[in-house]
Write a structure and sequence with these properties.
The protein is α/β, with parallel strands linked by helices. Among the domains are: 111 residues, OB fold (Dihydrolipoamide Acetyltransferase, E2P), CATH 2.40.50.140; 155 residues, P-loop containing nucleotide triphosphate hydrolases (Rossmann fold); 158 residues, 3-Layer(aba) Sandwich (Rossmann fold). The chain is 39% helix and 17% strand. It contains 23 helices and 22 strands. The protein has a 7-stranded mixed sheet with strand order 6-7-4-3-2-5-8. It has a 7-stranded parallel sheet with strand order 12-13-11-14-15-10-16, with helices on both faces. Strands 17-22-21-18-20-19 form a 6-stranded parallel sheet, with helices on both faces. Helix 8 packs across helix 22 and helix 10 runs parallel beside helix 11. The chain is globular, with a radius of gyration of 33 Å. Bound molecules: adenosine-5'-diphosphate and magnesium ion (MG).
Length: 695
């Protein structure tokens, strides 16, 4: 039986009471217990001389002989025990205020002991309640005289008297009894190249370390292994996609592409051209495209998507684009319709708030194949939406969708469609490797010519009226501006300024005669559309809003972005918001209002924005500050579930693991030569990929 199937009660010293407590901490099997890792290790291996103790010493460990014990009855009916030790350099008294009766029976005068504790001075050196272990055999030294692992303890564990000492004992038992049965999932060749110990040695070095160096190497191996397994999944998935039968192969770039290309109001940047070429090659090849397009905000991903769809439509197949917000879907629809004017291509918009009669009509267009391009929100993955020959699926702002939703859209095709996912939140490279490691990656690494970098400044309440004056002067020059608030309406006693109040105040005050409008998530969808189009055609000069405009919105004439309470936003979010300006040829400005705070970290974080416009650097910083969970807002279904490896701190290991995993599968695609690893992968990740040896 596998260790992942053996109940912990099979381990010596684990009875029903401990079993229940351990279960409450999520430990059910022998394997669970062996992979329950210490939170830290105390070095009790280095022995000290009693004669060297200094005032204010931290925990120290001594090896000393028990000279004499003396027990006294104490007030609370307990027995207090004093024990005098000597190591030849000095004397040390150990004192137990409880449990003295028991201890006086087991401590033997004249024997040698290892003791650890924090010495204090009280008529001589003294340690209260030391950790003590008899030194007759080195194997006995579980709790002191060595490096001591300390385990994470939950309240439930503590209440059942399970402490680190118990863990050391029962994990030690588990290693003795079952260590030989551990499954080795790292191929020998890899362990050899990377110089990693086998799994049994590694777990021993973690739970019963004898030296810091081997303990660290063992931890590294476990972290590496975690990445290695994930990367095997990524690589296998990638191979699976490449092996899919491909129905939608374009013969050439088609008649539409050329016409569209000639109509474009600008020349493509070299970076855009390169990416269009990569996509073209993918669409033409007999392997299904599975590509991620990364490019900073404003780098011009939309037109690349449109060109890909034009190639597809020119070959008679449909494309679908999914955008995260109605505002964005609407905008894509308008841009695409304008650019494709006069071309023979049907463009259809599908959103959730559409009237049923309109929706039915559009669904019919899509099903009939009259729409070459279908644009929508998640509404396009809903039931009732049927395509005729969906050959290309594009997901805009991928980070806003769960991985599941990508799958749903793919299922709308009768075959395996080509997939292009686009992300403007540049995510740290390490993260994209582990989240999207199964995709090919294209990068737009430069902005269209003529863009001036946005100037960014942090301002406080005191300077706000000056800032507003500046916005007014920009508007008078013919430009437009955004003011973004963290909230729609004020809630309770919060000091946060909210969009509704801000809007009222500005409308009655400084911007009385200026076209000003309010936009937020609670405004009805058709009203939202109307406001956006009036802002686009510059009837509205100042848009007061919440983060509904965070992604994608493109109004090149807007040059000022004022973000109220910028301390309330993540850096990547600020970067996205800032990306709403600087899209045209005018100098643009981003002003980050900082609410009253004396939190140095917060101020420091916001100020990162002043130092760089580089989305990759910002996302790295953001990710390091907030960690993967918060970085994505709510829990993303695609986040890798890492137990001990860390995406930032261990990124070197990730890279090694990736290289090794890809090399291994290249030479042994179904792990035929590594049955233990293959079985493990199938058991652990079988819901994602399977490694099957059909031969
Ligand atoms: P994002 O990558 O953030 O989605 P968009 O596709 O919205 O960026 O493009 C930002 C702006 O840049 C749009 O107004 C678009 O028309 C414009 N644009 C895109 N490519 C070019 C180019 N090669 N030259 C000039 N402007 C461009
Ligand atoms: Mg975009």
């Amino acid at each position: 039986m596998k260790l992942s199937e053996r109940d912990i009660s099979e381990i010596r010293d684990v009875g029903q009471v401990r079993k229940k407590a351990l279960n409450s901490a999520g430990i059910f099997t022998v394997e669970d217990l062996l992979y329950y890792f210490p939170r830290k290790w105390l070095d009790r291996k280095t022995l000290n001389n009693i004669g060297d103790i200094l005032m204010g010493a931290k925990e120290m460990t001594f090896s000393a002989q028990l000279i004499k014990t003396k027990a006294f009855p104490s007030k609370n009916g307990q027995t207090r025990l004093n024990a005098a030790f000597s190591d030849g350099t000095g004397m040390l008294t150990c004192v137990w205020f409880q449990g003295g009766e028991y201890l006086s029976k087991i401590l033997v005068e004249g024997e040698d002991y290892i003791l650890s504790g924090t010495p204090k001075y009280f008529r001589g050196w003294q340690i209260d309640h030391p950790v003590i272990e008899r030194m007759d055999k080195e194997e006995n030294l579980r709790n002191t005289g060595r490096i001591i692992p300390l385990y994470p303890l939950t309240a439930a564990l503590v209440s059942k008297n399970i402490d680190s000492r118990t863990f050391r004992k029962i994990i030690g038992n588990a290693l003795d009894e079952f260590g030989k049965e551990l499954t080795e999932t790292l191929p020998f060749s890899i362990r050899q190249i990377r110089n990693y110990p086998d799994i049994e040695t590694s777990l021993n070095d973690i739970h019963r370390p004898t030296a810091d160096s081997t303990r660290k190497l063992a931890i590294q191996r476990i972290k590496y292994e975690e990445f290695f397994h994930l990367q095997l999944v990524m690589c296998r998935r990638r191979m699976n996609v490449k092996a899919l039968p491909k129905k939608y192969i374009i013969k050439n770039s088609g008649p539409l592409l050329k016409k569209l290309y000639e109509k474009l109001p600008f020349d493509l940047t070299d970076a855009q051209k390169k990416v269009v070429r990569e996509i073209y090659d993918d669409l033409k090849s007999d392997k299904v495209m599975n590509r991620m397009l990364q490019g900073d905000v404003g780098s011009g991903k939309t037109v690349v998507a449109l060109l890909a769809m034009a190639m597809t439509a020119g070959n008679g197949f449909q494309s679908a684009v999914m955008a995260p917000t109605e505002i964005l879907a609407e905008q894509h629809y308008k841009v695409f319709s304008a650019m494709c004017e006069g071309l023979d291509i049907g463009i259809t918009l599908l959103t959730g708030s559409m009237k049923k009669s309109v929706r039915d009509e559009r669904l019919f267009e899509v099903a009939e194949g009259r729409s070459g391009i279908v644009i929508g929100t998640h509404a396009i993955i809903q039931e009732g939406v049927e395509f005729r020959n969906l050959g290309l699926v594009i997901i805009d702002e991928q980070h806003r969708f769960g991985v599941l939703q990508r799958g749903e859209l793919v299922k709308k095709s009768d075959s395996s469609p080509n997939i292009l996912v686009m992300s403007a939140t540049p995510i740290p490279r390490t993260l994209s490797l582990s989240l999207y490691g199964d995709l090919d990656i294209s990068i737009i690494d430069s902005l269209p010519r003529g863009r001036k970098p946005v100037r960014t400044a942090v301002r406080t309440d005191k300077e706000l009226s000056k800032v507003l004056g500046f916005i007014k002067s920009e508007i008078e020059k013919g430009r437009q501006a955004y003011i973004v608030y963290p909230l729609i309406e004020k809630t309770g006693k919060s000091d946060l300024k909210a969009a509704v109040d801000g809007y009222e105040e500005l409308k009655e005050g400084l911007f009385k005669d200026t076209g000003i409008a309010l936009l937020h998530g609670k405004i009805k969808s058709d009203e939202k559309d109307e406001i956006m189009s009036r802002f686009k055609n510059a009837e509205i000069k100042l848009l007061v809003s919440t983060t509904v405009i965070e992604v994608g919105v493109d109004v090149p004439n807007a040059t000022v972005m004022l973000i109220m309470h910028s301390e309330r936003f993540g850096l990547s979010q600020l970067h996205q918001l800032r990306g709403r300006v600087g899209r045209g040829s005018h100098q643009s400005f981003c002003i980050l209002h900082l609410g009253e705070t004396d939190n140095e970290d917060t101020i420091h974080r916001v100020r990162v924005m002043e130092t760089t416009n580089d989305g990759f650097r910002i996302s790295e910083a953001d990710f390091e500050i907030r960690g993967p969970g918060e970085f994505f807002g709510e829990k993303q279904s695609g986040m890798p579930d890492l137990k001990i490896a860390h995406l930032v701190y261990d990124k070197e290991l990730l890279k090694q693991a990736r290289d090794d995993a890809f090399a291994l599968l290249n030479s042994d695609p179904v792990l035929a030569g590594h049955p233990e690893l293959r079985d493990f992968m199938n058991a652990e990740f079988g819901d994602k990929v399977k490694f099957l040896n059909y031969s």
